[in-house]
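INFO batch 0412 | record 1 of 1 | parsing
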Amino acid sequence: MIQKKRYGKGSVPVLTIALLVFMTIIPVIADDITAGATDSQEIKEDTNASKNTDIMILEGGWNFVSVPKRLASGENTAAIFHMLNSDGRSIWAYESDDTTFGAWKTLKESDKISPLNGYWVYSAKPATITLSYSNDPLSTPPLRDLKPGWNAIGFASITPATARDALLSAKKSWIEIIGFDAKTQSSLPAILNGGDGEHSDKTYLTPMQGYWCLVNESCMYAALTA
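INFO prediction complete | emitting tokens
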């Protein structure tokens, strides 16, 4: 189901139509995040100026997203997507393991949304989600253990950075990264560790986007900022 495509060096899995269909037809259990809004409802922006907030923009269709910083307590779970019109589709996370689809997990409202993790979110039409960031002055940069194979990662920064810099903590372990273009519903060219041209590791990663990351060994992935 996860097909591979050659990009001149190595091979990378791309999110194929078959996989999108798989995520669509899996039965949705009662606790999953499902459609909480109709097309006539709008997702409103939080205008409370005292909060450290940001806006996540979603395209119609599947979006591979992440949060660039820790979210505020009480606003750091999958419930932030509750009012999104997902057309009945679940939100998905992925943890690398030895099975083809055993690593996929549907999120419940109580599941935490964490930096450094990538999430697949479906929106029936373009929409926005308000993110409220933690104001804890003692926060340290988030850390995450990556497992050998493919990992769905997030880019934890509010400003773009090159793949080389973003994955500096795993510089000896990561092989390649793939982004997803929600507007075209297709994978972006692979970014290769030490690559050049279209596959250069000087390619910038974008805040709030998720990425597939292939690593050859267990390693630590650290955010650039808290």
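INFO post-check: Residues 51 and 120 are 26 Å apart (CA to CA).
INFO record closed
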